[in-house]
Amino acid sequence: MELSLVQRLLLIEILISEIWSQERPGPMRAECFGNLLRITLSVEYFKDKYLSFSVVDQSGIAWELNEAIASQCGYAVTYSNWSNIEFRASALSCHSRLEEGMFIITVEIKASHAADMKNATTHMKSASCSYGPWSARELVCESNYMEVSVRRKVPQTVKDFIQDEPEDWNLAFLEAKGEEASIWQIVFHQPEEKTALLVSDAWSAGYGLNTTDTRVVLRIPYTAAQIQLVKDHGITFSAVRSSIFYKQRWMILMVDTAVACPVDAVDYINKTIIWTVPKYIQPVSAGETSFKDVLVEAGVDLHKLSAKEMASRKYVLLNDLHAIMMMIPIGAEGGYYKTSVRSGQHGTKYAINLFLEHQWEDNKWGLTKYIIIKEIETPFEQVELVITNNSNLSLRLMNVTVGTFLPDVKLVKLTIEGTTVAVPEAVQHGYLTYEIRYANGSKAYIIQVPLDAPSIKKEYMGADMRAYTLNVTLAFIIHPTSETFTVPVITVSAVKDAVLPSARGFCDGRNLHLIITHGNVDQNWLPFVSDTHLTPESVKKYNYSLRDNGTHLAISVPFISSHMNYEDFHASGLKASLHLTLKDGITLANRREFSVSCSFSPSQLIQCLPNGTVVITAVKLVGAEDLDTSLFVLRDRQCKPSLVTERTATFKFNVNTCGTSRKFNSTTMTYENDVLYFRPGSDMLVYRLRFVCWYAIKQAVDVQYESKKNPPPNIKPGFGSLALSLKLFKEKSYTEPYQELEYPVVKYLREALYFEVELLQPKDVRLELNLDDCWATNSQSQDSLPQWPMLINGCENSEDSYKAVFHKVNYSLRVKFPQHMKRFEVRMFTFVQGTTLLQEQLYFHCSVMICSAMQQPSGSLCLRRCNPRKHRLDRSAEPHQHAKVSSGPVLIRKENN
Asked: What's the number of CA atoms in the CB half-sphere (13 Å) around residue 423?
């Protein structure tokens, strides 16, 4: 195919197939084909270089070629077969030297690695070719020009060819009469008019005119203004009808220089190229009445092929009365596939450079030689590229192969996250590219990038899997056309390396706190409470706290807030929970959920102020979302909340108003009221929150009675080197102890508590556990005051109205060492200290002695029966070991409602 011939021809990465790797002498190779010279440049030598072409005339002057000069003077520069560079010259070109049977052409080629041709290397190539006898008329259809040459002594022009021949003479005669013999004039015949140009004007218009001792030459670029498109047998030709006038001595000679070359003439049927050339076309055969074929030959790349060679390639050459037809299977030997682009899509075309020579004799010219050089390309055919993911997950490396490509394609750029970089610069982004070649000359590209590169998108897939997505666009250039196309590469690899965020929660007196430890999948997850996205604006609006240091996300929410879930009441406070959801930042799909629950002190809901003002906040419990908090009232329904949110209603009133009842006893004053909710439009009560304020002398204590569930216990472990346990059981059978999540345990007056004290370690049959003292406190500290004794010196407290009861321990599957265990039962009773009524949780403690299980003297401290105090004192020096153990808390209630 012909390329634009410019002063600087850029060769970027001329691609070399393995079959080209043979040694060739020198950087240029010359070949002769009749009246044509071809110089082929070595692709190995001129790889990656800018080129300029010049032709040296007989005076040694180098004329640098451009497109216009090349087509005007009979030169062509083309690329073929994956960037092969060919320079072709006509024997009658402007700067050729004609000698006896020879024409000589000298070409100067400069090559440089720089576009401005600095430090260029100059290569000279002089070639001479023999040529046979000239025909009376020779027509050449080159890739960028048409050429016609005729003998000077030619027959007079037939009247039928130029009907208005006298007018041509009239147009030329006046100018020719006064000029020297070297001045020519040309007349172009067009349907509308005739145009006469002097030689200088014709040269300025791009036409090439020349003369030798025996021939007249006209060369016409395909872009010339005088070209006409004519049809013959359905085939379109570029044609020029012209006459050249020449004055020699006292004679004026007129030469017919008509020429026509086929423009299309190619069909593609059933994977076959069909090239049809009509014979004896107008205007070339105008005035001729008899024709006789002398020669019909065809070939590829200017090489004529014999019938045997054509058959081996499955070519077909047909010559009938009116046309010559050549049929070439697409993909056959002699052609090649080249990369092409259409609408940004990658594809290929099959290209072949055909050559046809037709010689005939007629009654006008005698012998005519007609040569056509036809570069044919099949229509574009899209080719799907294969993208193969060969990632090595053990090395955490994404490895993608893209291909295959023909040798005329080169990867030049990558677009990574919107930034386009050249291939060498891609390394800075973690991208390595490799070109691999196959035996048939095709190639593929490998893209490698670490999984942890910033441009690799990581997305949580579920379970412990993450999806790693490579999204890069590759930009390619095609040589020599410089067409470009892009290939988006999107591949996904699933890797089992997901680390999910985890969380821990805790509470203080007023807030719930949730601390989330980031994993490696939640960088783009968004925190939500309910349907509210926790942004800096929403956090400020609701008076929350949100902090993220990159490794941890800390969220704090006040106990009284719009997004809190209130689950249940109990005696020590209100159980509230905060539910937080991490959602996908793009799809908003739920990814991870966390919650924290705590019980808050009643003081957060009820304030009994010394001046008699009560502030009570009623909350809407989970499961009662349909309640309208603005419709909460007190016993006096005229008392409505002063502050309402979606989940809370706050009342502020004096104890003497709103239907508040009052009771007196010797130590306290008690005020009681209810927060009520009635079904709208009826008197159906659906919600009641009872609250009480107890006022003692100079003291106010607030208690809230609605109790069903309680927070986890805070059990203080025993002291000393022994491993002991003090457990509270649900029944006298001692089969089911209370678990940690069931503390504090709620008990009512006169209800039994079943305790079991056990020596856990060491498991020595020679040891025996004996109880010393057991007592209760209102805090975890064993030494805190006040204290209420239950056992004294291993015996029941004689001052208790409900004395302790001991239970025998027998061997069982659970009890391997009965001597390591003691069980006793006490009844719940009222604990008082002075005049203060204690209604708080209690903790229980026991001190024990570990003694030898061997037979003891009658006065031993370790006797198994309950002993008077005086016996203990008598043997106080006997060896034994003391230890203490605790349990609780237990909540005391006056009565079971």
From this structure: 15
